[in-house]
Amino acid sequence: FYSYSISGNTWITLAAVPDTTNDSGIMIRNSSDDTIYLTRGRNFTDFYRYSISGNTWTTLAGIPSIIGYGSQMIRNSSDDTIYLAQGNLSTGFYSYSISGNTWTTLAVVPGAVRTGAQMIRNSSDNTIYLAAGNDTGFYSYSISGNTWTTLAVVPIIVGEGAQMLRNGAADTIYLAAGNAATGFYSYSISGNTWTSLAVVPS
């Protein structure tokens, strides 16, 4: 595990992760938070926290099911809750309480989450958006209601290398489809419609 100094153009070796990591692992840090969260990766349930100031790792409560290709994990700023889509061709969806060090099983995703999946939540918005990956499925999740809604399908299969973003509370989501394709699209939240935009240069 390493840190890189941008100003010094140097790498520093830090405390090693408690165990070997695998593909499909996810690492998040929000804002200026002192803590980094890391999933071990495909075929594992291990979950860790790293203290930047202390250069120490803590092993946390394990994820309820093994994660795999397409797994996604997000946290909003200093929220106490982390959300995780299991991936691994499954529909598992979970929340993690940072203060309680506990996982909660939430409503399952309407479709299997696979390679290329993308999941976003902006600011304190009540809604999470998920493109299922290796498919055209697109869904929204209500945090307060613990319910999923199936939205208009993406015009093309979303695959490895896909990227999805939304600016703040904007009504538009942008998606690059990945999957060795040049497709680029916008999604209107209010209209539940996709629009094909100029293709990405090949």
Structure description:
- It is a single chain.
- The chain has strands spanning about 1-5, 10-15, 25-30, 35-40, 45-50, 55-60, 70-75, 80-85, 95, 100-105, 120, 125-130, 140, 145-150, 165, 170-175, 185-190, 195.
- It is mainly β and about 200 residues long.
- The protein contains no helices and 18 strands.
- Helices cover about 0% and strands about 40% of the residues.
- The protein has a four-stranded antiparallel beta sheet, with no helix packed on it. The chain has a four-stranded antiparallel beta sheet with strand order 7-8-9-10, with no helix packed on it. Strands 11-12-13-14 form a four-stranded antiparallel beta sheet, with no helix packed on it.
- A hairpin with a 4-residue loop joins β9 (about 95) and β10.
- The chain starts with a strand and ends in a 6-residue tail after the last strand.
Average pLDDT: 95
Strands, count: 18
- Number of discrete helical segments: 0
User: Proportion of β residues?
Assistant: 35-45%
Major beta sheet, strand line-up = 3-4-5-6
- Say what oligomer this is: single chain
H/E element sequence: EEEEEEEEEEEEEEEEEE
